[in-house]
Amino acid sequence: MQSVRLLLVFLIASLTSYTQPFIQILGVAQDGGYPHMGCTKSCCELAWKDASKKQFVVSLALGDPTAKQWWLFEATPDIKEQLQAFQQSTKGAYPYLPAGIFVTHAHMGHYTGLMQLGREALGSNQVPVYALPRFEKYLRENGPWSQLVKLNNIQLKQLKADQPKTLTEKIRVTAFIVPHRDEYSETAGFKIEFSGKQVLFIPDIDKWEKWNVKIEDLVEQVDVALVDATFYSATELPNRSMSEIPHPLVVETMTRFESKPELKPRIYFIHFNHTNSLLWNKTEQDQLRKQGFNVAETGMIIR
User: Where would you tag: which of 4, 75, 95, 185 has the fewest CB atoms within 10 A of its CB?
Assistant: First the structure.
């Protein structure tokens, strides 16, 4: 594969000038956001004192300037701020609500924002929500999500794993199943294809070794890989068993790619727990970049 030629920029220029599809990162934090509820430690102290340091929960916007449509990936607890941020950055060039919402799984940071579409808040009309079969069934049969379906606030669209879903002439999305804590649903990752480029989105997964796919092989097939970076190391939660939350540690992912240095620039770490210094420590971010990897940042554009 040719070297990556995606242009990664920030919101200095208006997105309205773009003619090709793009992804905008709307959030990079783990489900609890940043600062984290109840945290009085140094990792969150500055963010409690300075609201400008707040970070939203992981979410992406996928826009097609030609079709004047956009899609949201993950319905987070921060959904109303994220929709507003997208409206402001695109100067209202797109409808307020997305043409569809793709959701990975039934953990609080990824789907609870759907509640904002209900009659207690927006009262939306048939917003398409894309989910894998078990998750689609869960939303349809369990409240309060089932009320959204009954009142036609959302319209469930069942995805088939490993089968591409065409959105426009230039965009298609493929869901695939990854191992994770699947109490209520299976967990999806997404491959997003547009303008000849491919972006991998895996915000949540258990250890890479639990998957029947080698992450190195998958990264080799794409141009950008947004991957789970919940924890940097195993020492972040001294009072909790990491076996209960077995995410791939950043240090583990970095080790896997030491023998493939040409793939490092494709990796953008995302989904940071509040304890992960890559979320708030610029020095740690710079050190990681010096090793060839990247840190996803809110507002970043992939095009």
Answer: 95
